[in-house]
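Researcher: Let's try something more involved. This one mixes different molecule types, so please make sure each is placed in the same coordinate frame as the others.
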Amino acid sequence: MKNNRPLILSILIAAFIASAVLSLLIGTYCIGIDRFIEIISGRGTFSENNIFFGLRLPRILLALAVGGSLSLAGVLLQAIFRNPLVEPYTIGISGGASFAVCLVVSAGLTGFMGRFSVYAAGFTGATIVIAILYLLNSRGRIKNITTLLLSGIMMSFIFSSLIMLVLAFSKTEDAHGILFWLMGSLEHTDLKLSLFALLASLICLTTVFFFFHELDALLLGEEQAGYLGIDVPRAQFRFFIAAAFLTALSVSLSGIIAFVGLAIPLITRKLIGSNHRYLLPAAYFSGAAFLALCDLAARTIISPMELPVGVITGIIGGILFVWALFNNGKKQNV
Amino acid sequence: MSETPVIKLTDVSCGYRGGFSVNHISIDVGKGTVCGLIGPNGSGKTTILRAASGSLPIRSGKVEMEGAEITGIKRLDLARKMAFVMQESSSPFDMNVIEYVLLGRIPHRKGIALATSQQDMKIASEMLETTGASVFKERNLNELSGGERQLVHIARALTQQPSALFLDEPTNHLDLSHQHQIMTLVKKLSRESSIAVTVVLHDLNIAARFCDRLYLVNHGKIHTSGTPEEVLKPEILESVYGASILSCPDPVNGKPLIFIPC
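Model: All components are placed in one shared frame. Result:
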């Protein structure tokens, strides 16, 4: 199976492109292939252009960016913590982002600052958590990688409680808005923002790809990786920062989208193995395709109404995760 | 031993913060020799091994690799010169044997190498052949038995092409036949590839049979060192292990044979 890895990777890239095109064509207003070609060659009608470039394309680009980012962050964190059950939301970054968004929404800042205040709050909250973890690490308070993981988990718990506190004192409409944000949505974006997110996530993928051998070595454990000439603390921190950035980017733009960062790395590992030369791009492209398709389902199941995409990813991702866990379970020591 | 030892510890003291330490350790391991560290549980054998391999910082003394102080050697250069096989370890992730063995080529990567070179693949295959692990090269590491896995760990270490090899209790949890297989391989490697091997062992009879030189460690210090015949004397062992011990020459090879009388 693992000798076919270039083929599997090619199939996943094809699936990534196919899911993007499919999502662009299907929706409340379906676009035929002939119209699709007309629109992208600049000959679409005003309403077609509005739907395609104003709504659908930004949303799908964001789905690809967020899906790819969360999945990639999952792979990175699982390698540095040597634990296949760690995901981007375990390390407290999403907690910090969520809490900051809660504060902004309940303080009524979205009224005059618009959607931007939510993005800014999400990213600031996430960055503050990263900064706290960085400071603890640089001052030698964090002795090993398990302490870093536990610090992140504890921060998640603290922020969950703080979010509940804010919700308890919020007005009903604010609480409703916060809850919807927490369930995840790819709706509120524009083309520039989505393109930025996609580009940033692809730059991250390319950068970490050049260090794939360090991730492979980290799977053997810190001491053994050191014997292979790897500067372990530096490598761990480099990948941690990359994963934290990808998570902050995703959470601030789309809220909490569950299970992509946990289920997709696990399933991709089953398909292509743990060699990061293949696993990194495979996880990115399959995560992107998965979220684009989940968003397609969220948009179309009860069309013209929409379901929160985080609910769809939670259900489908959870089922796939259990399937992957029990399928060939002897091999995987999860 | 007229030539420069591959590994040389001179009056080394080191330990863990607020805990156990080893003191005034001096050890020489020459090219093509197998040096055994023996002693009771918790005596400091693994700590000495970690200090000798540079992974545990030392408080005083000197650790040298081929005449150069280890602290002055770059991390990658060190990984090209020495390899370490830790006590039985498994990965929480699936990895097949050939991929795992190829990780030993990481220190030899040149620039941004995105594909496995022919040279790396050739060396990894050769080492799998040498250790007899090539028959299961396509299998998953976690599917192998303890003995098979140990052979693969050694193949991975050899793929680093080291001049010094450290083994921490390589025969732990293995049956008699695999213990013999692993140690015969280690001895052969030291002889044929001139590797300086430092190995932590619990089984004194295996140590007697396969090591050229032994260091008996007790309470963080070298109690006695020398050839197996010099170290494995009942009176010395009794004082360290606190048990009544008998010794007689092995009828096959004349090495000391240690046993505890009923």
